[in-house]
Each structure stands twice: as structure tokens, then as C-alpha cells.
Automatic annotation (TrEMBL):
InterPro entries linked to this entry: Amidase (IPR000120), Amidase_dom (IPR023631), AS_sf (IPR036928), Carboxybiuret_hydro_AtzE (IPR014087)
Residue ranges occupied by any Amidase domain in the UniProt entry: 20-421
Name of the protein described by the UniProt record: Amidase
SUPFAM superfamilies linked to this entry: Amidase signature (AS) enzymes
UniProt lineage: Bacteria, Pseudomonadati, Pseudomonadota, Alphaproteobacteria, Acetobacterales
Organism: Asaia krungthepensis NRIC 0535
Stored Pfam families: Amidase
NCBIfam families the UniProt entry points to: amido_AtzE (TIGR02715), PRK09201.1 (NF006631)
Length: 441
């Protein structure tokens, strides 16, 4: 049952919010030892809020569009009364948060109920959700495979059926990669559309925050709630779609290549757009991420380096040493690439690209093939997401309706055109071309 169906059942009295929360808590308790999506259950708060929702329904008061819907929270968002860990022991001694992060608060005001905090790569620096302190999050559809990251716990929690909605962050692909590998909907919104207050930063000039969902219809409502703006009506059939070629058409696994070709054939997508110097755009994203991340943590690294995940620590230290002229050139290229992205939309309303090279990599061999070489997945699963990061455009991750392991596509629109992405997603869902993969009891 998706979020809107669940909220409707609770508002009409068909189901009780307390019963829903108890069921979800039981599901996490039974399943999560083998998945490790959740870092902390918010059981008491969730049950207290559920009782409040049920009481309002009994009084004839509408608790909101997401009445009683449980949601997960990536562990870099503030949750009142908890220490915000950002997946690290480094922050363990910080004071507890005195209020919820802005996105958490907006969902709560709409009637939704925080159920759990979720696992992530330390300080959101990675694509695998392989955390030295909190463990590895496994893919619910095949626990021998990665869930992706850095918002892997949030994506896996939706796929595992713990909650129909969750919050994540996306700097270089941290929503898009795990959404694709876990088979759920994910949205990287236009940069600065959603407030980042109360979320621990990674790369302030690139960071975005956004949702995972179990249906496109849920994504519409959540996007409106988180942005505080209604999405306009869009006729999806009138949208012009083009496929991103070049960089985005190499290194694909056979299943991904076949799925992408079938998708384009089903929608009669024949036009192909090639963005210029995508390799340089990806390199610029690497440089900006490394330098800003390193600068943010430099003082703490000097005094508490041993508390960091060694893999993250080394990348942050290397980033702090990036020469300033290189950073300047990366930002200069960012501005140029953004202009090139705008030019690409002279030919289409939506650009289509793979989200990752293929299926989730095995945990015991976390590698992917790039340029004929086997390279580490933790650093390279963002092959197709990192370049698009530079432009700050909105990207919807669409879970394809395919057999076997989940595969996802990126649908890219111009800034502020989330309405087009969501309308197209809803249409594709109704047509049976897109479908979230949620485990059943």
C-alpha cells in the first residue's frame, strides 16, 4: 500500500494509525538484521504521534494529506531529541537536536510519522552505504548485493516495506543511485527548491535534499509538501523526450542496455542528445566535492582523525590538499556545463539517461566495469549521476518495470520543472512501464 492509499484508509477510519505503526515496527524488527537499513527506531515518538492522529480522526479533524504515514530519515537530518550522527562517530558527543530538520517538520505537519533514522555512507561520502561504524546496508531484493548510497538506508527501507516514504540527500547521486539499485522512486529536486536547514552538509554548493517514494503519485504529494508549492497540471503526452547519448550510452550492462532500448522504443524516443565534455564535468564534480568536503572537516581531522571511517578520512584529507586554482577551474567549468545543459533543452523537454551502469554489484565483489576495466563501485556508481550534478537541474529516478534485479533511469528536466517529471512518472506508472519494487510480507 502506497502512502496516499494508507493515508486515505487512516483518514476514513478503515485503518488506525497505531496499528500501522505497530505493523511497521514489527516488520523492521523481523527483517532488518539481514538488511541493516535502520540505525535507530523512533518507536515511542511514532506511537505517540499515531495516537494523536487517531484521536484527530475520531474528532472529525483531518490530520493532513499524509495522515499516519510512516517515513524514514537519513541520519544526517536533525530529529528532535537525537544526536545527528551523519553516519559518523565523530559527531557522537554533539548536543541533541532541539527541533526537527525543515523537511522532517514539513512531513510531520502533513500528518506523517517519523519511524526510524536510516544508514548512510559516513558524511554522505560514497555510493555504497558501507559504513565502518554502522555496517553495510544490503539490497532488500538480493541481500548479497549493495543497496547503493549514500542514502542507501532510506532507499532500502522503502524497498523492504518498512515505510512508503523516506528522506535522503543527493550531492553527486546519493538519491539516484540507491533508488535505481533498490527499485524505488527518487527525486533530486532543483537545487535550493527544498530547504536544507537541519541537514548536515557535505558539499554546500552541490547539496540537495529530497524524497524516496513507493509510487509516482506519492512523489507528487510529497514534492508539493516539501516545496510548499503546488505542481501545475502537465499533459505528459505533449512532452518531447530525447535520450542522452555519448557518455551515457557506454559501459552499460546487457540488462540495462536492453531495458533502456525497450523503454525508448515503447515511447518512440528516436532523438539523441550528446552533452559536451561530460568527462570533464564529472571530474569537476569530483574536485568540488573533494575540496569542499575536505575544507569542512579539516579542523576536526586535525584533532579526531582516528574517529573517521579510514576510507572517508583519506578522501577528505586528499580533498583538503586540492590547490585553489583547480577548484576555481572546476567552478568555471560548472558554469559552462550548466549553460550547455540549458542548450540541450532547446531540443527536448525531458532528457533520458541510465541512473547506473546496471544491476546492484555483489557485496563480495563490489566492482563495476568502466572503460573495459574493473573499478570500485563505492567511488564509481555515480558515473552517470555526477556529471548532471553540476547543472543543479531536477532529476527523477524512475524504477523500470523489468524482471530480475531492479534497474532505474534518470529523467532530467529544466530547473523548476518538477511538474513535468512527476506528470511523466505518473503516466509511465499507469502505463506499466515504471513500477516500484516493494517486498511483501
Amino acid at each position: 500500500m502506497n502512502a496516499l492509499e494508507l493515508a486515505r484508509a487512516i483518514r476514513t477510519g478503515e485503518r488506525r494509525a497505531v496499528g500501522v505503526i505497530e505493523t511497521c515496527l514489527d516488520r523492521v524488527t523481523r527483517r532488518d538484521a539481514g538488511i541493516n537499513a535502520v540505525t535507530r527506531l523512533l518507536a515511542q515518538r511514532a506511537l505517540d504521534q499515531a495516537r494523536h492522529v487517531d484521536a484527530r480522526v475520531a474528532e472529525g479533524i483531518d490530520p493532513g494529506p499524509l495522515a499516519g504515514v510512516p517515513f524514514g530519515i537519513k541520519d544526517l537530518f536533525d530529529v528532535e531529541g537525537l544526536v545527528t550522527t551523519a553516519g559518523s562517530r565523530v559527531l557522537a558527543d554533539r548536543p541533541v537536536a532541539d527541533c526537527d530538520a525543515a523537511l522532517v517538520s514539513r512531513l510531520v505537519e502533513a500528518g506523517a510519522i517519523p519511524l526510524a533514522t536510516t544508514n548512510m555512507d559516513e558524511f554522505a561520502y560514497g555510493f555504497a552505504t558501507d559504513n565502518a561504524h554502522y555496517g553495510l546496508t544490503r539490497n532488500p531484493h538480493d541481500p548479497s548485493r549493495l543497496a547503493g548510497g549514500s542514502s542507501g538506508g532510506s532507499a532500502a527501507g522503502v524497498a523492504a516495506g518498512y515505510f512508503p516514504l523516506s528522506l535522503g540527500s543527493d550531492t553527486n547521486g546519493s538519491i539516484r543511485v540507491p533508488a535505481s539499485l533498490c527499485g524505488v522512486w527518487g527525486l533530486r529536486p532543483t537545487q535550493n527548491l527544498f530547504p536544507t536547514e537541519g541537514s548536515f552538509p557535505f558539499v554546500a554548493s552541490l547539496d540537495t535534499v529530497g524524497p524516496f517514494a513507493s509510487s509516482a503519485a506519492d512523489l507528487r504529494v510529497v514534492t508539493e509538501i516539501l516545496s510548499g508549492q503546488a505542481l501545475g497540471a502537465v499533459e505528459a503526452g505533449s512532452l518531447k523526450l530525447a535520450r542522452l547519448g555519448g557518455w551515457f550510452d557506454t559501459d552499460l550492462s546487457d540488462p540495462m542496455a536492453a531495458a533502456l532500448n525497450n523503454f525508448c522504443r515503447a515511447l518512440s524516443i528516436t532523438q539523441e542528445v550528446a552533452l559536451p565534455h561530460v568527462d570533464a564535468a564529472r571530474a569537476a564534480a569530483f574536485v568540488i566535492s573533494a575540496s569542499e568536503g575536505g575544507a569542512l572537516h579539516l579542523q576536526t581531522l586535525r584533532s579526531h582523525a582516528s574517529l573517521y571511517d579510514p576510507a572517508v578520512r583519506d578522501r577528505l584529507l586528499a580533498g583538503a590538499l586540492v590547490p585553489a586554482p583547480h577548484v576555481f577551474q572546476a567552478h568555471k567549468l560548472r558554469r559552462w556545463f550548466r549553460a550547455a545543459m540549458h542548450e540541450a533543452f532547446a531540443q527536448a523537454d525531458i532528457l533520458v539517461a541510465p541512473a547506473v551502469v546496471g544491476e546492484a554489484p555483489p557485496i563480495d565483489a563490489p566492482m563495476i566495469m568502466v572503460g573495459g576495466r574493473s573499478v570500485p563501485a563505492r567511488a564509481n556508481l555515480g558515473l552517470y549521476t555526477q556529471p548532471l550534478t553540476l547543472a543543479g537541474f531536477p532529476v527523477l529516478t524512475l524504477p523500470l518495470a523489468v524482471e530480475g534485479l531492479p534497474l532505474g533511469l534518470q529523467l532530467v528536466a529544466q530547473p523548476g520543472r518538477e511538474d513535468r517529471l512527476v506528470a511523466l512518472g505518473e503516466t509511465l506508472e499507469r502505463a506499466g512501464l515504471a513500477r516500484a519494487r516493494i517486498l511483501e510480507d
